[in-house]
Amino acid sequence: MAGQELASRVSCAERYAWRHGAVNVDAPPSRCQSAPDGPPKFRVVAYDYGIKRNILRLLVAHNCEVTVVPAQTSSADVLALKPSGVFLSNGPGDPEPIGYAIENIRRLAGRVPIFGICLGHQLCGLALGGKTYKLKFGHHGSNHPVKNLRTEKVEITAQNHGFAVDPGSLPSSDVEITHLNLNDHTNEGLRHRSLPLFSVQYHPEASPGPHDSQYLFDDFVHMMSEFNG
């Protein structure tokens, strides 16, 4: 897996709109697809590096109009869509060879709020000057304890990754470490100290899986609301 750029291989071929909301498993089949109250308040462009559908469902459920774009879409083309925020998805492979994504994130940082998950988190770390490395076994499955260093709360998370961000490589003057894996103390989250950008290594959208971390979608909405006035 090391050295392999796989995001462009699994990404969508062209951009598309996603309109389906979150699934309520307790509802009858005809009503299981929820819809937000009222029209969308935010326009989100989601980079598809291998995106999970439940991420898109949760963005719609949080009053977002979602446009999914291929992994190699330029930052200029994304900004031309006038997004309220940009989402960076999960995906396979080694993050370091995905130079086009790293450069796009650098060009978007500060111009639009950014939220990344899993591979998107690793790409944020690289874009902010950090390094990534391959884990010996990786983190897979559910019930991984992660500590939110800002709230001191422990979240039970679902994970599926083979690489991690080296927190010691990040410029501490610009980047705050926000989440820590309690099993092996690897990095699980970061936030820029002055720019509207944050990311996590695990999967807050896990379906099925623990829902402890779905507050991160609320945080993204709040960030977009503050940034866009």
What's this model, at a glance?
The protein is of the alpha/beta class and 229 residues long. The chain has helices spanning 7-10, 53-61, 75-80, 99-108, 119-127, 215-227; strands spanning 16-18, 42-48, 64-70, 85-88, 114-117, 131-148, 153-166, 175-181, 187-192, 197-200.
Overview of this protein structure:
With 229 residues, the protein is of the alpha/beta class. It has one domain (7-227): 3-Layer(aba) Sandwich (Rossmann fold), CATH 3.40.50.880. 22% of the residues lie in helices and 32% in strands. It has six helices and ten strands. The protein has helices at residues 7-10, 53-61, 75-80, 99-108, 119-127, 215-227; strands at residues 16-18, 42-48, 64-70, 85-88, 114-117, 131-148, 153-166, 175-181, 187-192, 197-200. It has a ten-stranded mixed β-sheet, sandwiched between helices. α4 (99-108) crosses α5 (119-127). The N and C termini lie far apart (42 Å).
